[in-house]
Amino acid sequence: MNKSQAVPMDYPMPSKAAAQNSVVRRASLAGGVGSFVEWYDYGIYGLLVSTLVLVFSSSEMGMTDAGLMLTYLGFTVSFVVRPFGGIICGYFGDKIGRQKLLAILLLMISLATAAIGLLPSYQSIGWAAPALLILLRIVQGFSAGGEVSGAGSFVAEYAEDHRRAVVMSPLVMGSFIALLFGSLLISGLINLYGPQAMVAWVWRVPFLLAIPMALIGVYIRTRIEDTPHFRLMKSEKRVVANPLREVLTSKRHLKAILLAITLPAVNGPGYYILFVYMPTYLNKVMHFTQVQSLMVTACGLLTIIAAIPLMAWLSDRLGRKPLLIASAMAMAVLAWPCFWLLTLGMLPLACMAAILLALAFAGHAGVIQAALAEMFPTTVRYSAYSIGFNLSTVIFGGSAPLLMTWLIGLTGIASIPSYMVIATAALTLVSTLYLKETAGKPLRDV
Q: Which CATH number fits domain 21-432: 1.10.150.130, 1.20.1250.20, 1.10.1330.10, 2.40.50.90?
């Protein structure tokens, strides 16, 4: 065994029998809890758009399309800065490690979220209110840009080769559990205090909850060491001097990044249209009540949370490609009929549509993060993963709520979101054909 293959006793590789299952479980838990806190902080804005537009817009704009688009601008700009957050965080994550950086990112987004909960309204300080809101969304976007790829790299580098998607599934589930918790919390607050109180002051409560959540998340993330793969690379002095230059000057890495942009194309609409934008779509376009809209979203969230572990388990046994292909085809076929069901205005049919779309999307959501982590070597995994996934999210996901609001207002066609889902599902399907199967194989270190 040569030097590059030697594995010091202090750095057990996750694919070996010597890897401690308890350590792997703790890494999986740290990823899941961190993901929950991060995406609760990030997603609560989308769930509360119907209320925030009344708080941060002038009374003349109100719930007009212009008011909604102003508030969704805060949603979109947070995505514009995500690649910058991913590039900077990826650079330092590949240089100094994943663990400390992830704890800092969690604290950053939580403080920005709590600050949103303390902002004065438009009625109090005028245009400074939405300006400050957008500024804080930029901070959130920067943090989120480094979170997904960093947490994905962290958990993937702890996981056993033969069950990497399963070990990573709590990380993926955390984001959906956060949205479910947010949906139920907001529904409960509306029922308890009423819509008027929600606009007056209750909307602040979900944002201020970020503070205790952050304390829990940071504590858990700081209680586990950096990954065995990174520690081994550091001990052998194989840390790349400039990860970004390594990534951007390598044809191999650039080809992989291009695939990392197109492969998760359906992930953007799948997440941000089906779950983040859906409550506003049902409330303002389909005229469901706010509570009914959140109930429909909750049905979809419960479904995908239950389905992700099963899809991850299947992908560890059948491979990444079969699950990604099946999910893309299901999303393309079901998108239009399910959005047509939503236009009927009947709560049971809307819940059924949400459940069907969630089941179709689960095959992608439960697999994509493992597939992306496996595409890159440890030396540049955080950087390359960040660039590819964040660009994909900006192109196909971040602008979705703003674009859908504008197009529906322009055309009056309520089923427009389904066309975006179909188009991105087709792109994911084609991209999957170029993906090399990596399920069950060791992570590359170089």
A: 1.20.1250.20
